[in-house]
Amino acid sequence: MGIPQSENADPMTIDEFRALRADDAPAGLSGALFALLQDAKGDWSGAHESAQRDDSPGGAWVHGYLHRKEGEPGNAAYWYRCAGRPLPTCSLEAEWGLIAGELLRGD
After folding, report:
1. CA atoms of 4 and 97, how far apart (whole Å)
2. Percent of the chain at pLDDT above 70?
3. Alpha carbon distance 59, 83 (integer Å)
4. Spacing of C-alpha 64 from chain mean position
């Protein structure tokens, strides 16, 4: 689940999403997207808590990304498996954009 949209609305861009303040996040924002937003603002702990509360594959993907960022490859690998995702080989910044883009589109 991404951001609720009207039928004719274009999805929010990654840059628009990254520019949001966590306390101004749209209503209905998924836990996975809220976790990414918190991470973008430097709140790893808050991001981790939000990812833990989201039991969707997107939540597991963000959870894996966060543990990869923290330098815990074993824990990250577990969460990537839960998400049905391979371990990434790209940079953390590139992965953040991949996750955000997919979740914002609602894929």
Report:
1. 19
2. 90
3. 8
4. 10
